[in-house]
Amino acid sequence: KAGVTQTPRYLIKTRGQQVTLSCSPISGHRSVSWYQQTPGQGLQFLFEYFSETQRNKGNFPGRFSGRQFSNSRSEMNVSTLELGDSALYLCASSLEPGGLVKTQYFGPGTRLLVL
Amino acid sequence: KQEVTQIPAALSVPEGENLVLNCSFTDSAIYNLQWFRQDPGKGLTSLLLIQSSQREQTSGRLNASLDKSSGRSTLYIAASQPGDSATYLCAVDTGGFKTIFGAGTRLFVKA
Questions:
Q1: Which own/partner pairs from B51-60 qualify as long-range (CB within 8 Å, at least 24 positions apart)?
Q2: Which of A99, B2, B34, B57 is most exposed, with minimal Cβ within 10 Å?
Q3: Segment A33-43, tens digit of pLDDT
């Protein structure tokens, strides 16, 4: 069974641009979560999608948004990029959102560098 | 607000040593706690998941325990190997269905 895939793996953008990252979950998984990882803040929860609906959102500005498609693939978008958005963006999939048993499977991440 | 703390931040041990990584959390109302491993520049690999009703989980040389009342979890690694060198993160699933991660413990096992 294929794991979680994320594209692109590396990305370089300049301030003010926007970026779209993609995540394909493990087949059969319907929940996709996004995280931002930086050396200073560690791993922070961005949002979680289940059945095309955003179930929960972390404390990030509105420039960060996402969506999920009917095949469970998810995209996240960051508009008006800032230097501080440089980070490793990780996507994780699970069978169901939250709750008692939620083993999350992570993708390799997309490393974004904002110049 | 749930906060997750991991101690120590970094650890260097000789090969073959048994070691314990610590994780503490401030709010005992959790659904589960998960330990992950992260290799440099890569994603996370789930090691063990402990449900809120469980006390411990074991997988090979790894054993994780959970004490909700004291807000603590430990990851025990037996007979450490150089291949165990990585960053170990613990994460709790809160009642708000958010996953909160600790900052991690960087482990280096010397051959």
A1: B51/A100, B51/A101, B52/A100
A2: A99
A3: 999 999 888 88
